[in-house]
Amino acid sequence: MVKTAMTPAEAGAEAGRRIDAGWACAESVVATLAERQGIHSDLIPAMATGFCGGVSRRGGMCGAVSGAVMAIGMVNGRRSAADSREPNYAATQALVDGFVKAFGSTNCLDLLGLGLDTEEGQAEFRARGLMKRCRGFTCRAAEMAAEIVDRAADQQPKASEAH
User: Fold this and answer.
1) What is the Cα–Cα distance from 103 to 143, expressed in whole angstroms?
2) Segment 52-89, tens digit of pLDDT
């Protein structure tokens, strides 16, 4: 895959800009990391929409984490059924472990302390300014995914070494 010059910190900042522009967590992370890899498609944010808000506001896995998992998969996911899952699983486990270490959970309900599946929960989310917290999760998840992708790329044999 083609990697752009966007550093992990810049990827985090770009994901934050996408949040500010009205995109949601999973959409922002996966679109940022796709752009970083030189992938451009309207399908990229679209495929992530249902993961936002802890899977469609159900309080499950944080959308920023889901977006980061998808982004890691774009880079080191399997391309055929014969390919090993292990490199992707190891990268995804590193992401999840790092996110839990940073924030205590990957669960949207735990991270926000309220459910988003009711009008009351959404109103409280807005009243408490929790989008700022989601923005932080989004920025960090994008940065972490970029770091993990870079480490995985550094471990791949170079074309000149593959002989």
Assistant:
1) 14
2) 999 999 999 999 999 999 999 999 999 999 999 999 99
d(CA 35, CA 11): 9
- Check residue 53 and give left, alpha or beta (phi > 0: left; psi -120 to 50: alpha): left
Residues making up the chain, counted from first to last: 163
107: three-class secondary structure by DSSP: strand
The Cα 72–Cα 86 span in angstroms is 13
- Apex 85 CA angle, 83 and 90, nearest 5: 140
142 close to 68: Cβ distance less than 8 angstroms: yes
Residue entry with tokens 């899977």:
55
